[in-house]
Design goal:
This protein is mainly alpha-helical. The protein contains three helices and no strands. Helix 1 packs across helix 2, helix 1 packs across helix 3 and helix 2 runs antiparallel to helix 3. It is elongated. The mean pLDDT is 78.
């Protein structure tokens, strides 16, 4: 249960970081745009790297961060693939997953 709380806090922090650094000058500002998800995925990758580096130095209390970072990265990647698939299908594509 403790890891779930950490996961939710990190997920909210990632969303906030992505929202703050996203370029809001675009006309079609959209929640979870490509730029926003790329920023959040980069932060998740940094969390994973931080866990691996700290593990190399024998610091074990950051171990849950690695799994949480991987989960966030995979969720955001799946979301991006789904959005790309929907756009391709909306443009008249076949929708085949080749």
């Amino acid at each position: 249960m403790k890891n779930l709380g950490i996961f939710l806090v990190i997920l909210c922090a990632l969303w906030l970081v992505g929202f703050l650094f996203e370029n809001k000058q675009t006309v079609d500002f959209k929640f979870m745009s490509v730029q926003h998800t790329n920023i959040c995925r980069a932060v998740a990758a940094i969390i994973i790297i931080l866990q691996h580096v700290s593990g190399g130095f024998g610091i074990r209390y950051l171990t849950p961060l690695g799994g949480i970072g991987v989960a966030i990265f995979l969720i955001l990647s799946g979301y991006g693939l789904n959005e790309s698939y929907k756009k391709k299908k909306a443009r008249g594509g076949t929708g085949n997953l080749k």
